Amino acid sequence: ASADSEMAVFGEAAPYLRKSEKERIAAQNKPFDAKTSVFVAHPKESFVKGTIQSRESGKVTVKTEAGEEDQVFAMNPPKYDKIEDMAMMTHLH
Predict the structure, then answer these.
(1) Is there a domain that residue 86 lies in?
(2) Burial 34-64 (b: 16+ CB within 10 A, else e)
(3) Closest CA to 80 of 90, 70, 72
(4) Residue 18: which domain range?
(5) Model-level pTM greater than 0.90?
(6) pLDDT tens, 54-86?
C-alpha cells in the first residue's frame, strides 16, 4: 500500500495532515537556500516567510510579503513541511 492510500482513513482531513507523495517529491526538489531563507515575526500571522536581501553592521534586511521586519528566525527546507517527526527538523521555534 502506498503512503497516500494509508491516509484515506482520515478522509477530508488527510491533506492537512500529510502532503501527497507528489507534493513531497516536489518539495524535495524545490530550490532552497538555508543562508537566505528565514521566518520573520509578524503581528497578525505569527511568522511569515522571508528572504534576506542584505546584511550590514549586524542589521539584516529581509523581503517578505508584509514588508521589512527586523527579527528573523532560520527556516526549515520545504521537504519538512507537515513532517510527522519534528525531531528530524533542523530548526524549532
Answers:
(1) no
(2) eeebbbbebeeeebbebebeeeeeeebebbb
(3) 90
(4) 1-30
(5) no
(6) 887 777 788 886 665 556 667 677 776 767 666
